[in-house]
Input
Amino acid sequence: MSLQIENLTVAYGKTPVIRSLSDQWPEGCVTALIGCNGAGKSTLLQALAGLIPMQGKTAISGISLSPEERRQQIAYMPQDTSAQSSLTVLEVVLLGRLGSLGLRLPAGIADEAMAALDTFGLGALHTRQLDEISGGQRQLVFLTQALFRQPRVLLLDEPTAALDLRHQLLVLERLSQISHKNGTIVGMAMHDLNLAAQYADRIVGLNDGQNIASGSAAQVLTAKNLKTMYGIEAEVTQGPQNQLQVRPIRAVT
Output
């Protein structure tokens, strides 16, 4: 199974943002989208989630998805999770399986939601309203909701942006485990190149809405590609555990 993207194009008015982009995201793999601000990472995720108009084709294992199938099989978490809500943390997570909920909760589903919250250390907050917790905790709650849906495709826009370093590592380790164990297709926008090299199975480098490089960290995180994508000079070295490490040196003027 894979998510196939063929000639995907998105424009805001007459301004193209994604330009005839094609790629294939395999099951059981984490694909990281990298690139400077405005490269098209968020727009690409929103288009794949069916939230904005696009041209081109997307399919799972060769089968095009209807809008209803897209909503059922793809979970999307935006970068901005600051929307106000009086719902409790537990209620927000339960909404991840809205299609399964009726007038009464199915047996055991609340326990499953609590177990999902415990994964990120949020169980003690389950009765707190969303407005009463920190931005980082709120981001973890919405990530838990997306995972609780058990989607075939999980799209995340900067899922660690508001998190401290420990929770960044915890989230990325958990996403990697879920992807590999369940065969989930995970695509996420990332700014931290070293974390992308450490946790992503493959990386897609975007520049001006185009896919300029995709593959392993070694194939994408080259000094030449980083200069094209970010306008910087950088040193790329092998870390102590054979992981690539990127050290920015200077901006190219």
